Amino acid sequence: MLPPTRGRSRAAATGTPQVPAAAPGKIRIIGGHLRNSRIEVPDRPGLRPTPERLRETLFNWLMPHVGGARVLDLFAGSGALGLEALSRGAAEAVFVERDAGLAAALRANLQRLKQEARSRVVAGDALDAIGTLSGPFDLVFLDPPFAAGLWAPVAERLQAAAVLGVQALIYVEAPLAAALALPPGWLLHKQSRAGEVSGSLYRPVAGMA
Predict the structure, then answer these.
(1) Going by DSSP bridges, is the β-strand pair 38-41/25-28 parallel, antiparallel, or unpaired?
(2) How far apart are alpha carbons 167 and 165 in whole angstroms?
(3) What would you measure as the largest C-alpha separation in the chain, in angstroms?
(4) How far is residue 143's CA from residue 5's CA, in Å, rounded to a whole number?
(5) What is the pLDDT of residues 30-40, one digit of tens each?
(6) Architecture, CATH, for domain 25-207
(7) In angstroms, how far is CA 162 from the centroid of its own chain?
(8) pLDDT digits (tens, 9 = 90+) for 70-116
(9) Are the beta carbons of 51 and 194 closer than 8 angstroms?
(10) CB burial class (10 A; 0-12, 13-18, 19+) of residue 114?
(11) What pLDDT score was predicted for residue 48?
């Protein structure tokens, strides 16, 4: 059984690098037409949205790709990555979040920011949800709870479900020391770090231009 925490939660586990949890409250969107809008972050044990430094670096990388993209934000949590993409011109974002309270808060934030017409929240387990989604997705954000070790299973499910676009980019967030065991066809495109957390952008080899 998978651990109950989702949405960029960092449960403690022996041997897993621990990342300080952000205080509950608000984080800001850092670019696009929603720039400086605040996202409500519910109080959940271990919930930590992607650090602002990594988000800024990621969306600098994605600048040529995000406009008009279909985006899949797995383990969405606060929805910071998917909302940042919508702010910067993504055509659509699908958010997957298992925690019912986080999913409800995400829907409320999308409604408040008037983004509900371009978004959908799927309240359920990411591995189960992937097979129900209609692709293709141009951008995928993959940031599961660190202690769960779900990078490889989720990556394999994405491949098997054929939901990735021909030039899809997949952002993977993980501890620096994690052994991800991603599919061999995933080419590392860009990589950065913030403290003990790495942010990496991959492109499936079949999707290379």
Answers:
(1) antiparallel
(2) 5
(3) 43
(4) 12
(5) 999 999 999 88
(6) 3-Layer(aba) Sandwich (3.40)
(7) 18
(8) 999 999 999 999 999 999 999 999 999 999 999 999 999 999 999 99
(9) yes
(10) exposed
(11) 67
User: What is d(CA 185, CA 203) in angstroms, rounded to the nearest whole number?
Assistant: 8
Domain boundaries, the chain: 25-207
Q: Roughly what angle, to the nearest 10 degrees, separates helices 80-87 and 52-61?
A: 40
Q: Is the peptide bond before 136 cis (omega within 30 degrees of 0)?
A: yes
**Spatial separation of the C-alpha atoms in residues 206 and 209, rounded to whole Å:** 9
According to DSSP, residue 73 is labeled E
Q: Hunting for tokens 């993977």 — which residue is that?
A: 172
For 194, counting Cβ atoms within 10 Å of its Cβ (0-12 exposed, 13-18 middle, 19+ buried), the class is middle
State whether the Cα torsion 31-42-92-141 is positive or negative: positive
The set of residues, in sequence order, having a beta carbon less than 8 Å from that of 144 and lying 6+ positions away, is 6, 74, 75, 126, 150, 151, 154
Q: What is the pTM of this model?
A: 0.85
